[in-house]
């Protein structure tokens, strides 16, 4: 049973981990798909804004100016460096106008999304009529030229496209017609600044739903395991109770059987002494059986069903008298009982019979479970305005893991040789019900092999 239970718990935990993995994988795939879709949407939005007449007219401002610089270069009026520098200056002049158009267009296409745009030069070369090519700018040139947009690190951005502007240009060079062919290559990049926040916002509903579903499954699994553990514990308690009650009933029944056989045997005929002895045995065992049945019936009562007959009395006198009577019922030579009874001067209001029963149950338990030295204390706890009664022993003690169960009906600690001690597991349950009926509380402090301290608290009325 224990092995099956552990196996079921292990399978449940493994299933939960697998569910987490599958759910995480699905969310990750959804994120990646959304990312690709978003990237496609962003590219399309940029294309719609970029390929417009307004942007095209802005680009022709630096193109026409660059043709003028190339003519001057061919005439020997300026150097390559001067031509490129002029290109930079011109693009810087027109860039604010382009950014205004771009941001307005992108806000209309994808509102709330901050997408940076950059168009930069990849290479520039010029060929003459004879086919000779002069390279003005190489792709690996460290002095990067940005044409339009915002300057950001291209390595962390997405490449949208390459473009190649090729055009033949005729001009007059020193009174003679001349010609050159321009090969102007550019790269266009985009950089989404709030990429994660946009995707997170889009996936928030899915993420929240997944988390809620996961929490529901975890809660359901926890609830199921808790119920299973509770049912397992109840089954063990019932089995334990049946074994204990069977053991308790077996002795008087066996004795009754022997006494009955003695009465019906030929030795009892005409022998009054044997017959009287057998009758007395039957009477004692009958009384024992009756007490055992009464114990089960009485101890099964809940605190709501206990009818108290409260009276007001001196707690210290009550405790001393109770302990005097109790010592007469046990072997006082084997038990050392220390008293720490305060004369509080505050009356205790309780049912003497039921309160005595609860205290005696605790004393009997202390002795039954190895206690040879007991300390009984009584006084007033001013912090919570209660009468307290504590019983400390030097018995076998109770492990912390079992302490929250010991006041349950039929529960007995199933550890080491604890079950060698007789009992039905009802004493502490009944004691707690009595104290609860008084509006009080009972608690335990204990460690294995270090004894226990049971403390009763009853409110001051």
TrEMBL record:
InterPro entries: HATPase_C_sf, HATPase_dom, His_kinase_dom, HisK_dim/P_dom, HisK_dim/P_sf, Sig_transdc_His_kin-like_C. GO terms for molecular function: phosphorelay sensor kinase activity. Its EC number is 2.7.13.3. The keyword Transmembrane applies. The chain crosses the membrane at residues 7-28, 203-223. Residues 244-461 form the Histidine kinase domain. It catalyses: ATP + protein L-histidine = ADP + protein N-phospho-L-histidine. Keywords: Kinase, Membrane, Phosphoprotein, Transferase, Transmembrane, Transmembrane helix. This is histidine kinase. It comes from Aequorivita soesokkakensis.
